Amino acid sequence: MNKEIDSGESNFLSKLFSFRGVMNRTEYLIYGIVFPIILISLGIYLASSMPEGKTFLIFVFLGAIAQLATTVKRARDRNENIAVLIIALFAFSPIVILYLLFAPSKELEEGKNKKSRVLLYVLLGLSLITIIGLVLAKLMSNSNENVREKLVCVKMKSISSNLKIFKLDMARYPSTEEGFQPLLTNSYLSRSPLDSWGHDLKYINKGDDIELISYGQDGYESNDDILFSQCQ
């Protein structure tokens, strides 16, 4: 008899230190902290070297805040409360430090500070590399995710067919509590079904119908879940 695989995603430590957890937190670090810091740094320099720099700095600062807010919302949608906490506690600290270190001064306003020019070139290079890297990573990720979503829908359709055969033979669907175990026990399935990301599929008995759910890439219940009823 096959045993159901316990992914352990409900455990806090496994969420925190799992590969997916590390990747999610890296994403939050880049989008929620590194990128806003680069934006603010550029804004501070340009504010010191342009006549309209003060106004420009305000818009850049608002853009950084919007970036932070978007990242926090994404983390909350994924139920990543630890990521929300980290972003909220540490995101603005480096920004304040950068402002204190590189705030506009008389030398900067006169354009005579060579170090500030070096800083500008470094930040421009980092910004360009970061933007290009993020765009390429996003394009590749979206392409792979689309393929995986289609594959998980195909797999759900196959499992749904097995469930219908089970119902014809047993005059009922397995209960939600039973899950896929009756299908495994009676050889309707050879092993516990996983989605395209290696997570256990969730099964729900809705009486006359059933629902299959994949939690997607992050493996946590969120707004990004893939429902079999939406795969049609």
From TrEMBL:
Keywords: Membrane, Transmembrane, Transmembrane helix
Residues covered by the Type II secretion system protein GspG C-terminal domain: 147-224
Chain segments annotated as coiled-coil in the UniProt record: none
Transmembrane spans: 28-47, 53-70, 82-102, 118-140
GO CC aspect terms: membrane
Ligase found in the keyword field: no
Pfam families reported for this sequence: DUF805, T2SSG
Protein name, per record: Type II secretion system protein GspG C-terminal domain-containing protein
Originating organism: uncultured Sulfurovum sp
Lineage, highest ranks first: Bacteria, Pseudomonadati, Campylobacterota, Epsilonproteobacteria, Campylobacterales
